[in-house]
Amino acid sequence: MALVHHTQQQTAADTVRLQRETDDIDAAFEIVDQQLGAITATLKFAQLKFDGGGSKQGGADTSTRTFRLDASNGGSPLCATPTAISKIVDKNKEPSFDKLHTIKTTKLEEMTKIIKGTQTTISGLNSCTPHTNYDQAYPTTMNACTYNTAGTVEGGIERAARTYHGTNKQLFERNTRTGECAVKQLTEANEKDREKDLSYLLCKALQATDSATKPFSELSGAQLQAEPTVLLSIRNCDEKFSTSQTKDGLSTNTALKEYVKSAFGEDSVKFRTAFVDALKSLKPPVRTEQKIDATKSVEELAGTVDAVAAAAHAEGERIKKEIEAEKKDAATPKPIVSKNEEKCKGKPQGECKEEDGCEFKDGKCEAKMTKAAETDGKTNTTERNSFVINKAPLLLAVFAYII
């Protein structure tokens, strides 16, 4: 029962953790997509080319002319795309993504600096004065030019001399894949910083992918003795440890802890032998219609419809044994309860005194036994172990968590 409670609690915690980690990963994918979209848009924009061909130019008066230029992505690429991920920065080596702790990012503001402006070229001119430094105003540039009938007008994006502004961003506080994130939280809505948000969400996503629950087979009594759920379950089921009345009391109950350590195996090897390997060999009965089959192990049944049938059948057998035990107990004559028994029942240890005919025994206060009572065959005894509890439902519940 203690293992069932432990696995149920672990399953609930894992469900919450997995949902949180899924949200972190989804958020990271979203902001990475945004960054990729911005990069793709910049690359496409940098390739824009403008063509003034076709009969669509004109002017409404004698002093101006309007040129309509068609845009296309006919320009040269902004940068050469690596043919394979191993060719990035010509390292000829596949990245170890499981060791990723630093990324290279470019702010959106820096991306726009890649575009210096536009450049338009008009051909078919005569007598123009050369200006090789490209440092003149429009009137000066066009002042001496005359135009013939064979000219064209074309345009394109003028790029900055330096077209890459990526900087290294460390995702974790240390230059390793462990520890806290370098950026502690998302930036405020009124002060959004996409670069910081990207670093934070990627760090959280990496932490999520690195996170793992310790396998059930690697549990041990040494670990379980520190689990409050396990200690509480055993305290509530075993009278020997019922004197631990509070959660705080459990942490100092050495006898209870030693019992857990011994009962579940001091190390994972002993635990695995007693609880995992045993589950694999156990074949609980499964009632289907009028037939009872016991050919499948708990491992094979876990997570199937037959597992429910096996658990229900085992629970039915347990209830039947309990009813039979109660009937047998009801048929057994009960001794007359003495005044001392009534007086001693329920008293705490400090008030359980011998002069009142009481003694504190097995974790509870009860009437002190006399010689006559000890030899009296009708004297009431504890009903501990009065019936056998079928373990199949508990084992199925545990194994459902294992797989």
TrEMBL record:
<keyword id="KW-0325">Glycoprotein</keyword>
<dbReference type="InterPro" id="IPR027446">
    <property type="entry name" value="VSG_C_dom_sf"/>
</dbReference>
<dbReference type="GO" id="GO:0005886">
    <property type="term" value="C:plasma membrane"/>
</dbReference>
<comment type="function">
    <text>VSG forms a coat on the surface of the parasite. The trypanosome evades the immune response of the host by expressing a series of antigenically distinct VSGs from an estimated 1000 VSG genes.</text>
</comment>
<keyword id="KW-0336">GPI-anchor</keyword>
<keyword id="KW-1003">Cell membrane</keyword>
<dbReference type="GO" id="GO:0098552">
    <property type="term" value="C:side of membrane"/>
</dbReference>
<keyword id="KW-0449">Lipoprotein</keyword>
<protein>
    <submittedName>
        <fullName>Variant surface glycoprotein 2052</fullName>
    </submittedName>
</protein>
<keyword id="KW-0472">Membrane</keyword>
